[in-house]
Write a structure and sequence with these properties.
This protein is of the alpha+beta class. The chain has a single domain, classed as Gcn5-related N-acetyltransferase (GNAT) (Aminopeptidase, 3-Layer(aba) Sandwich). Helix content is 38%, strand content 26%. The protein is built from seven helices and seven strands. It has a seven-stranded mixed sheet with strand order 2-3-4-5-6-1-7, sandwiched between helices. Strand 4 and strand 5 form a beta hairpin. The longest helix has 13 residues. The radius of gyration is 17 Å and the shape is globular. The model has no long low-confidence stretch (mean pLDDT 95).
């Protein structure tokens, strides 16, 4: 499937689904000096080709906002060792589609911890954190992240059809996953 960028929105941060973490895991926030920890998780999860590229991106995107990043970045940790095995950021955009939005940003779990029921609790925790500052949220991903897109749909995010190539991308996604939200969206498009 062609990799096309897609955006999803959630107009309210009320009624966030509850997913408790499995035993043996916890969360902690980012602390200065954790830049490499963040970069290693992102690189291991496939979001960057190397730790160095992830560190370069971190420097570019977050170095001027470290106090904010410390409040908004969560690490998923193995309780027994305090090893960080996942990360997400409850970021923000004061002018997404003309309104203040929280942003689910840089979601990643290292491969050996994927499939253990950790993604949904991590997303729920990030959304609760966003709710402290924002009424609504959005996220960006791409057509290659079908499992994540299915989870985001389950969490109440819906396609933002205002973006370039949105209709094409969401038709591809709907052909690959069977989700009621997408089925309704496409039925409305055909009517």
């Amino acid at each position: 499937m062609e990799r096309i960028a897609v955006w999803m929105i959630r107009e309210s941060l009320e009624n966030i689904p509850e997913y408790p973490l499995p035993a043996g895991y916890g969360f902690r926030t980012f602390h200065r000096g954790d830049e490499r920890v963040w970069a290693e998780i992102q690189a291991r999860a496939g979001n960057f080709e190397s730790v160095d590229k992830a560190l370069e991106h971190f420097e570019h995107e977050f170095s001027n906002s470290l106090p904010e990043f410390e409040r908004r970045c969560l690490f998923l940790i193995v309780s027994a060792t305090s090893e960080a095995v996942g990360s997400t950021t409850a970021w923000f955009d004061p002018d997404y589609r003309g309104k203040d939005h929280g942003r689910i940003h840089w979601v990643a779990i290292v491969p050996e911890y994927q499939g253990r029921g950790l993604a949904k609790p991590m997303l729920a925790e990030a959304m609760k954190l966003l709710r402290q500052w924002h009424e609504r949220a959005y996220l960006a991903t791409h057509t290659g992240c079908l499992k994540a897109i299915n989870m985001y749909l389950d969490f109440g995010f819906v396609p933002d059809m205002t973006k370039e190539r949105a209709a094409e991308a969401w038709r591809l996604i709907a052909d690959a996953i069977n989700h009621p939200v997408l089925n309704r969206l496409l039925e409305g498009e055909e009517a």
